[in-house]
Write a structure and sequence with these properties.
Largest sheet: 13 strands, mixed
Radius of gyration: 29 Å
Strand content: over 45%
Structural class: mainly beta
Distance between the termini: 76 Å
Helix content: under 10%
Low-confidence stretches: 1-14
Shape: elongated
Number of helices: 1
Length: 414
């Protein structure tokens, strides 16, 4: 195929200009203003209104730009040879006849790359409702801007009537090809059929995928926290809180697969992997006679999100094979039903932990021994991260909560 388009070296761009080394600098000099206010309306130390706003810059780190140095990746495909011997009787390590190849997939860095930053606003009210007992309500809003993401800029999708052939549509995009049926008889022309997924059209035949790292993503986080604190009095204290929150965005990492498929452009925004609607925590400690301390904690949280995906291999409009991940599932009739990312929820989870501590004197030093049990009830909640339902057998990425754990220790203060 390279010879058919008159290109001998796939790294030579149109016009015969080879890609050359180029020096550029990473700059992280940014102005980050912050403002905080606090007001005691009665000047008695029993109530407080507070607010703060700040801009916090991250860093442009080296990993985000070294991908441009290569090596560029090739993805050849071969038939599987079960007996491991070719037609003339030589071993072929089960690598059969050549199916297809494509030019290299490369990475490039946007020369206008900017430092990611976060704008954070906090507003709250704290009130003493009884001696040594305070209650506060806090609202936090964070806007993550200019987040890094690599996207494939060498493929596009089309909408009818700009389709290549019939104008068949999938999710509003053209779906004329994707699966190529190669006939057994070489004299019969192969067929390119729709596969239920949006078609990919290539821009520059000298490359396959070109991943450009730039400031393409954003994230939003908002929460309300109700916090109850009972300071140490009559030998016991507690800390309890409830948080309602929502986190949305396009990706959690700049190497996320969400940028690898142009067909995801309209669907990749969704709940982030750490999004939880409700989180409640309770911690308490009691000081008992004989220098004993007994404490415990209870944590309960609503389920984290997960996605149904289809991981498939399809052809683009010039028969380069593309590995794709699209959010959604197939119905019993084989139709692809598109979804937003992280549209599903795991079950709620809880954890109970306890701790006992004994203080004593060891020679001339103060010492203490403690014993802790994490996950006292030995819960083994399963968290689903992703379910791939393209294959006949479901494939899932999941994490199971670690079981009951014990810890003991000795502390000595000289």
């Amino acid at each position: 195929r390279l010879a058919s388009i008159g290109v001998n070296d796939p790294l030579v761009l149109e016009g015969g200009r080879p890609r050359q080394r180029e020096a550029f600098s990473i700059t992280n000099n940014n102005l980050a203003p912050r403002l905080s206010l606090s007001w005691d309306p009665r000047s008695d130390g029993k109530a407080k209104a507070f607010a703060s706003w700040g801009r916090f810059y991250g860093n442009l780190f080296l990993q985000a730009v070294v991908g441009e140095q290569g090596p560029d990746l090739l993805s050849p495909y071969y038939e599987f040879d079960e007996d491991g011997v070719n037609a003339v009787g030589l071993p072929d390590h089960q690598v059969g006849n050549f199916i297809s190849s494509s030019p290299p997939s490369a990475t490039q860095v946007d020369r206008g790359l900017k430092t990611p930053f976060t704008d954070e606003l906090t507003i709250g009210w704290e009130q003493e409702i009884a001696p040594e007992l305070s209650l506060s309500l806090t609202h936090v809003r964070r806007a993550y801007r200019m987040q890094l993401q690599d996207i494939d800029v060498n493929h596009t999708v089309r909408r009818p009537p700009r389709c290549e052939r019939t104008g068949t549509a999938s999710r509003g995009f053209c779906d004329d090809f994707g699966v190529t049926l190669v006939p057994i008889d070489p004299s019969v022309q192969y067929q390119r059929n729709p596969d239920g997924y949006p078609d990919l059209y290539i821009e520059n035949l000298d490359f396959n995928q070109v991943f450009r790292v730039g400031n393409y993503n954003y994230q939003e986080y908002a929460s309300y926290e109700l916090h109850l604190v009972r300071r140490l009095r009559r030998k016991w204290q507690l800390d309890a809180s409830y948080v309602y929150s929502k986190a949305t965005g396009q990706a959690e990492s700049f190497l996320s697969e969400s940028g690898n498929d142009p067909a995801l452009t309209e669907l990749k925004t969704g709940y982030l992997s750490y999004d939880q609607r409700h989180v409640a925590k309770f911690h308490a400690v009691a000081y008992l006679p004989g220098d004993w301390q007994l404490g415990g904690s209870v944590n309960w949280s609503s389920g984290l999100p997960f996605s149904f995906v289809n991981r498939v291999q399809t052809h683009d409009n010039v028969e380069f094979i593309q590995t794709r991940r699209l959010f959604g599932s197939r119905d019993p009739y084989g139709n692809f039903l598109a979804e937003n990312r992280n549209d599903h929820r795991n079950h709620p989870a809880y954890e109970l932990s306890v701790r006992a501590r004994k203080s004593f004197v060891l020679g001339r030093a103060a010492a203490g021994a403690f014993f802790e049990v994490y996950n006292l009830l030995n819960t083994d909640d399963l968290r689903l991260i992703e379910i791939d339902n393209h294959a006949e057998d479901l494939e899932s990425d999941e994490i199971r909560q670690f079981g009951r754990r014990f810890q003991m220790g000795l502390q000595i203060q000289f």
